[in-house]
Amino acid sequence: MKIVVYGLGIIGASVAASLKRAGYTVYGKNRSRESIVYALEHGMIDAEVRDCLDADVVFLALPPRVTMRELDEGRFSDGCIVTDICGVKVPPERVVLSKPRAWKYVGVHPMAGKETSGIRSASADLFRGANFVLTRNAQTDADAAETVRALAREMGFSRIVECSAEEHDKMIALTSQLAHVTANAYVTSPLASDCKGFTGGSFQDMSRVAPVDEKMWAELFCLNSEFLTAELDRLTDRLALFRDAVARTDEEEICALMREGKARYQEFFQGK
Hints:
By secondary structure, the protein is an alpha/beta fold. The protein contains ten helices and eight strands.
């Protein structure tokens, strides 16, 4: 099986490194020669390729709009399995379904990463124990999907979830995108610049994902505008309830709001 990873950032290079460690021959394609050299020197890929024409499986690990362009205009061999790791799934799927394709598309989203980016942050262990989302539609080839599932298990993912592209984008608006918006907004307080010595785990947890690639995340936010806007509205409505209760010094209402949030946390995250 010839596997090509196109795009050697933190996720793409981690895909390559984890599959190579699992025993596969992995080829890399990247716009930057520097990343190719780094991947070769650190054993993340076996060789460089200039195109994907002879590949059996292609992982597109590119920025969202570049991914969509490659899905629309890229050249892949007949029967090739093409999968993208884009953080939204409805827009790429629409591109693929816009006309007949001789290759087989499987949309995925590895639920792993770091607050840093680039190939130097990549690791063959990045996906160990992480979740992996695979999206299906009526035209998804069952054998292609199973091949991708098997590769995901060999990359180290512990849980594989299958859903529609729309369900993925709705959930990811809450579990990923809203968290990044909130973290970025949180650290813009004027007090943040003078908070050294006053921070603990809660500040670090809330702010960890604030310094991410703004261009890529802006693309993701805009491509998932409807679902993310809905989550932002829910959050701001909830914050308004807290704000009003604090302004009234209404301890009973604050306790009620916090009890509700604690109960939801225990229900969804602790299985209680």
